[in-house]
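Re: the request from the purification team.
They wanted to know what the chain is likely to look like in 3D before they choose a buffer screen. I agreed to run a prediction and write the result into the notebook, where they can find it.
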Amino acid sequence: MSKYVTACGKVISKKQGGKIVVALTPSVGCGNCKSNESCATAHGELRHFELQTDMNVNVGDMVEIGILKKSVYTNGLLVYIMPVIILFLGALLGTVFDKKFATNLATPLFSISFLVVYFIFLKLLTKNKENKLIILKILS
């Protein structure tokens, strides 16, 4: 079992300092993928990624790129699961204030405020963080 989520792409340009630009191509298995509706490559749209490499690749080479599954799972947790938990905690705290001060505004205000603060925190946390895409192998 691989520790990477992989995709195939074509090297479309080389840049200074060992950087290359890879265009991901739609996979043969895209039609059966559960993410078919939300994935840009499944609809024939090319996605471009710039990555650093020490490998000897040329423009036109087909390469297999990968990202650690751990990064994919961590990003999913931060973007999809944590906001729901934060929203719930804000609503719970807002409900306590609503009961204590006999108001009906604390629950929605706390929920939205907690989410806004979370997304600001998330933006600051990931500002300089880059998911490391690597070339696993040169296919042709």
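For the purification team: The mean pLDDT is 84.
Please add any questions underneath this entry.
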